[in-house]
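Support reply, case 0932

Customer input (verbatim):
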Amino acid sequence: MDRLKLVLPTPDYKEMILDYKREFIENGDSMDGTAGLANSETFEEWYSAFFDNLKEETVRKGLVPATTYLALSTEDNCLIGMIDIRHRLNDHLLNFGGHIGYSVRKSERQKGYATEMLSLALKECLKLDIKKVLVTCDNDNIASAKTIINNGGKLENEVEADGTVTQRYWITL
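Our regenerated output:
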């Protein structure tokens, strides 16, 4: 499965990223693993936050250092998805968010891309010396649960908050 490559965002990808955001907004989907793209007014605002959050010294208040990748098709360089690796966990991430968040644009779902993206991200986790990776999903997100399990995820438990049940999976590398 070498259909995807993970690359760091740069301003060269601005139009691709904005198109990705537009597709999610049009479909009313959640933009998980995008480093706050949904809440950014402009690409430049988002890119600045992405860059700040790469390092402990510059991470924005209330967040943890994280690296966000674009998942591009190796065939045509199309932006398929985005995936975010948090370098460490805070209390909220330990219960609900995990080390990794990801999303695949609606037009590219059900093609196995999320499984491949997560596999590639796990290799990046090793480079960050993260050997036990927490990945979570809502209990009704069957596709995400399958993606996590296909990458070796073992369900530890489910936690509930505000009517939402989150499944917590650990992947040991």
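We compared this against your earlier run and they match. Two observations from our side: The chain has one domain: 4-172. The mean pLDDT is 97. Please reopen the case if you see a mismatch on your end.
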